[in-house]
Every structure is written in C-alpha cells, then in structure tokens.
Design brief:
Blueprint: H1 2-11, H2 17-50, H3 59-71, H4 78-85, H5 88-102, H6 110-154, H7 159-186, H8 190-215, H9 221-224, H10 227-255, H11 257-299
Helix pairs in contact: 1-10, 1-11, 2-6, 2-11, 3-5, 5-6, 6-11, 7-8, 8-10, 8-11, 10-11
Amino acid sequence: MIKKGLKNYLSNLKYYFTPLGMLALGVIVSLAIAIPYVNGSARELVDFTSSLGNVELDFSAFLQKILDEALALDWHNPARAITTIFSSDWLNKTFADSIFALTHNIEPVAEQILEKISLCVSSVIYAVVFVLVFAFLGIFSGYYLTRYFIRKEIAKRPFWKTLLVSFADALITAALPLLSIYLSALWQPFVYVVALLLPVLWSMILLFEAYIAQGLGKLKIKEVITLKTSAKLFQTNLIIIMISSAVTSLISLIAGELLGLLLGFPLWMIAIIVSSLNAESYVKELADRKEEATQSDAQN
C-alpha cells in the first residue's frame, strides 16, 4: 500500500501547475479590475490636491514616494510587511506623509486632504479584498479541478456511488463526534482513547467509504478493513504529507517564506487529494486482482 500510495502522489505531481494556474488566473483577472480602480482613486486624490490654490503634485512622484515607504519595511518577514502595507493605518499615514512631503503651504486645507486620503485608502482596501476573494475562488476551483484529474487517474467511480459515499461521509461525520461525546460522558477517559486511536480510526473510515465506492459486491468488508491496512494507510498518507512539508520548507529556506508558500501550496494540495483517494486506489486494485483471479480460475 505504501508503494502504491507514493506512486499515486509522485505520478500526479504532473498536475502541479493546475492549482497554481487557477490561482494565477483568479489573481490576474482581479488585478485587471482592481488596479485601474485604485489608480483612478489615487489620481482623484492627486487632482484634488493639485486643484487647491497653487499646489502642484506630480502623480508619478506621489506613487514613487509611497513605493519608497513600502520598500523601507522589513521584507525579511514578508507576511508582516504585506499585512502592514494593506492596513488602513499604514496607508493613511503613508499617503498623508507623501502628499505633505511633496507639497507646501497646504496646512489650511489639510483636513480636506485627509478626508480624500481616507476615501482613497478605502478604495485600496476594497480592491485588496476583491483580489483576495478571487484568489480564494482560484484556489477553490483549482482544488476541485485537480481532484477531478487525479480521481480519473487513480479511482474512477460511477456518479451514483459518489452520491452514496457522500451520504455515508455526511452520516459518519455527524455521528462520530456525537458518539464520542456520549461515550465520554459515560466514561471520561474515553476521550483520550479516541485521541490516541483517531489516526487509525479515520483510516478505517476512509477504507469503509472506499469499500462502498470500489469494493461493494466485489469484496468482503473484512478483506478491506483491518487494523493492519488501516495502520498502513495512515503511514502512507503521513509519509506523503511529510514529503510535501519537507519540500515546501526547503523552498522557503532557499527562496524565502513568501515564495515557499506560493510554490509549496500545490504540493500540499496534491498531497491532500491523493491522501483522500489512496484508500479507494487500494480497494480498486484489490477488487481488480480478485476479479482477474476469478476469471483466470473460470478459464482453467
């Protein structure tokens, strides 16, 4: 099972660029809408400031001043730097400092300018949220598209079995916590027993769902769900997750956290998808072998 699971993971790395491409598509589409919107809002701010008396404010110089402030942040911690840039406090302060540094004698109308800055900052925040929503949609669609391709490779199943497995999964997901709470109320140490056995127990659930999808009518349930196969399934999936984690950490160490996160998330996505389908892949292979053996015996 371990060899089969690792083969599933490594062979399906060919879909690495599918989630990355869907994320890029979502970000590109959203930026194509958001950038002109923010650009227009910033120009309105500059035009308003320039219309006040003899004040002249160059738009490119204004943007350069903001860029200089952004580059001055500590980019050794990219997550903190990005969070700072898109915070309303930093944007308000930076926009105000940039305008006041590039213009003179505007103290009498400073309050009006600050109001316009606040409106401009709001447009930036809305644009950031818009981009994040589209990025999430890209990740979401990338996950299901990648899962569709991987399922076709390792564990195809009829639509009616998909509905049956979905129903079983929903039932188990709802019943298991309730049963655990009930048994823990009867015997308090039971919660620790569940915590210890949860990895193997979850592997048993995956094997049960895999049996419904790939082995029903072909195999006996005791051929599929055993303590040994459950432990091996958990071990297989753990190895796959550890490989993804190690590669992501290595990329982060070499190229930085931000690039490591960006280039590592498709590995994690494929690892999660393959881990959720390894049980079905195993049961399908088991069922195919039994069917071949039965046909061979019938021919002999």
